[in-house]
Structure formats: C-alpha cells, structure tokens
Amino acid sequence: MTNVTFLAIFLMLITAFNCYGQIAIPSQVARPITPIIEKLPGELSRIRETVKTPVDTTLANASSLLDKASDPLYALPDAITIKQSNGTAALKEIKTPDGFLAIEKEWVLVAKEADIKALSDPDIQVVEKHYLQAIGQWMYTLRITANLEKLSAIRDSLPAELQQQLTRNYVYLSQTSNPVDTSRRQMDSAPLLTSSSHSPSAELAKPDVKTCSLASRVGMIDTPIFESHEAFAHIDVTQKNFLSKPLTNNTVHGTAVAGILAQRLASNSLIFNASVFYERSQVSQGATLANLLEGLNYLAEQNVDAINMSLSGPENEVLRLALASIDKQDIQVIAAAGNNGPAAPAAYPAAYLSTIAVTAVDSEHQIYRWANQGSYIDFSAPGVSVETAHPTLRTSRESGTSMAAPIITACYACALRHRAHRGEALTSLIEASIDMGEEGRDAVFGYGLLP
C-alpha cells in the first residue's frame, strides 16, 4: 500500500467513517429499515464476488504457515452425551464419518409439508416440526433408526431437490479459546503470522470514536445473555430460548458477545438473541442445526439489520439454503472465521457466499494464532484478550474469532443505518478497512482491519 493510499484511508477513518458514521442526529428507538428498492442492487452482487474472489498469494505459502506452527492444530472435541437438569440423557453426540459432531440418529428435513410423505417408513419418526416463516418451508426433526444401507437407499429414492434438503442434525460450536488449556491460553497473544512492515502502528490505526450515533437492530445466535449486566443499560435486550429440552447452559459466551456489541451500539439500540447453545462443558457450547434454523427464522422475523453468528461447523446445504433465503431479505449475516488453525479447512457458516467472515487480531494487530485462514476471510478485528461483559464478574478478557465477529456486525449495522443501502454499507466497510499483511486483500486478514 502506498503512503498516499494509506493517508487517504486514515483520513477517511478519522473524518468520514471511523467505522461508524458520526452524524449528529438524536438517538431514537431503532425501527426496521425499509429497503429503498425491493431487490438487491446489481452492484451488491459485484461486491460479493469481489469479496469472495479466491486469494492465491497467501494460500500458495501454506507450507510456510505449517512450518511456523509449533503447536498441534485444533481438533474437534470428543462426542459426549448431554444430560438434562434431572440427570437423564437428552442428546447423544456422535462423530460422523466426515469427522464432525452430530446428534445420534437425528436428521433434519427442510421442505414443503407434502414432501414429508416421501419419507414414510417404519424406521423414520418425526420428532418435531416447525414452520419457518422467514424461509417459507417446514422443518422436520427426524429420528431415523434404519441402518446406513437402508438409509442410503431411502435417500437415493427421493427427488434430487429433497436429497439436498435432508441432512444430519449437525452440531456447531462456539468459537472462543479454551481457558482450561493453559498452554493454549498463554499463547493466545502470541502471533503465528505478523503483519508486514507497511502496516500502520496500533496507535495510528485505532479510531478515535467507537460508538455509533444511530440506534440499530442487531440479532445474534448464541447462549443466553445475562441481560441485567450494567453493560446493557443503554440498550434493550430481547431473548428467546430454542432448546426444546431442559438442558444446562451458561451465559458467559452470549454475554461476552453481546457486551462487545453493546460497546459499539448507540443508546436505544435493540439486540435480539436467539439462545440455541447447550453446555458441553464449562468452556464449550454446542448448537444443533435444527435449533440454528429456528433461531435464524426468529431473528429474520424481527427485521434485524444484521445477524452475528460466533460459531462454526461443517458445510451443510440445508444451512446454506436457509442463509441464502435470509440474505434475499436484506439481512446480512456476519460469522466467526473459526479457531481451528491456519491450515484447517474453511469453517461454516463464515465461508458461505452470503456471509461476511471475520478473523481475529491482537492488540498489536497481529493475527490470532488459532484463526482459520483462507480465501473466504473478509475482515479482521480485535479478538485476542478483549475486555467484555461477564455474568459473574464485572468484566473478563476473552479470545477467539467469536469476539472479533460482533465488532464487524456493529460496524455494518451502523453503516447501514447511515446509508440505508446495503451495497453502500458493504462498500464503506471495505473502504474503511486498513490493509494488513500481504498488500491488498489476502487470506489472513481479508480486506483488512476494522479496529
């Protein structure tokens, strides 16, 4: 990046955007934005294609990244049995043949109501069904006891479209570091790959103003939030629980993510939280695909500006189709890039075309050593040892791409409120980002840093 280019971006950050438009308008309760036109502008598709253009520069050096990784790469946790508060088994996780977590014998079908007839079989039981208004389809949670050979035959007999809409009830995990793993915790602030010499200093890049001047409507998929915390005194928090069984959950992760949003949202902003996670351990939370779909449907019905998803899991056609449907309603999804290590495969939902993927940097603007890397990375934001709200302490310091994602969510929501035009809001984030690492967009920092 040339000095002239950097100076232009820096001046724009300070005087024009600062990640948040600073127009002196009195705060009001955030009402839903009415789209200027019914369909997305053509330029938004162009922006999306640019954002997701494959990045070869950093990926070509993947072997050098592995050479620098002195610690083992992150692996999925073992499957466990989740118990209800009374001690009885509620969910039994398994490791699927593709290496991901899922609920044993549970599958999800998203289809028209009449389509369920195609799965009429003694070995298939409908456990739950819900109509997803935002997606315009029925969601069926199925218990399938057939062996794999019979299940494969049943699936092959379905129309091609229905085959894509039937999937395992996969488990998605929150994306914060494991504080019990002390060796990993000590290294959270140690970079795996530093920014190159043309990057601005931490002091120079940091905007003067953190909060937005216009109230926003933001959705999040997470654990419950400890909403009586003082961090939320200036905003309104509405929550809905989507766990169908009385499972244990804690409020640490959701409170931390909401706390970061609250730091940057204007007074009278609204946070809608879909509580979908169950507690796997004190430091690990899981959410089933079925609960994710219900949560997304609820948030879309609230007409939010954006949805924060600080979680990741396997690629899944059912989830992709649901997110594409929400995208068509002018709701932007922002997701954590994943904490599986620089050589790990792409994490979802961050890697979907309709989603903005966010990675984490430390206070010196060096990449979080456990962050995923790849051509799907869009932006970077602070996510290492960041101070945020805690349900039992006043604040705590948390690390992970989970903590970086809400910063970009707040930035986007604010930009949308000032511009009321989705294409312009996305463009403003790109223009306001500070180039890091390889010159131009890269697979480590994306377009750059929004502090």
UniProtKB/TrEMBL annotation:
<dbReference type="GO" id="GO:0004252">
    <property type="term" value="F:serine-type endopeptidase activity"/>
</dbReference>
<comment type="similarity">
    <text>Belongs to the peptidase S8 family.</text>
</comment>
<dbReference type="GO" id="GO:0006508">
    <property type="term" value="P:proteolysis"/>
</dbReference>
<dbReference type="InterPro" id="IPR000209">
    <property type="entry name" value="Peptidase_S8/S53_dom"/>
</dbReference>
<keyword id="KW-0720">Serine protease</keyword>
<dbReference type="InterPro" id="IPR023828">
    <property type="entry name" value="Peptidase_S8_Ser-AS"/>
</dbReference>
<keyword id="KW-0645">Protease</keyword>
<feature type="region of interest" description="Disordered">
    <location>
        <begin position="179"/>
        <end position="204"/>
    </location>
</feature>
<keyword id="KW-0378">Hydrolase</keyword>
<dbReference type="InterPro" id="IPR050131">
    <property type="entry name" value="Peptidase_S8_subtilisin-like"/>
</dbReference>
<dbReference type="InterPro" id="IPR036852">
    <property type="entry name" value="Peptidase_S8/S53_dom_sf"/>
</dbReference>
<feature type="domain" description="Peptidase S8/S53">
    <location>
        <begin position="218"/>
        <end position="448"/>
    </location>
</feature>
<protein>
    <submittedName>
        <fullName>Peptidase S8</fullName>
    </submittedName>
</protein>
<feature type="active site" description="Charge relay system">
    <location>
        <position position="253"/>
    </location>
</feature>
<feature type="active site" description="Charge relay system">
    <location>
        <position position="222"/>
    </location>
</feature>
<feature type="active site" description="Charge relay system">
    <location>
        <position position="402"/>
    </location>
</feature>
<dbReference type="InterPro" id="IPR015500">
    <property type="entry name" value="Peptidase_S8_subtilisin-rel"/>
</dbReference>
<dbReference type="Pfam" id="PF00082">
    <property type="entry name" value="Peptidase_S8"/>
</dbReference>
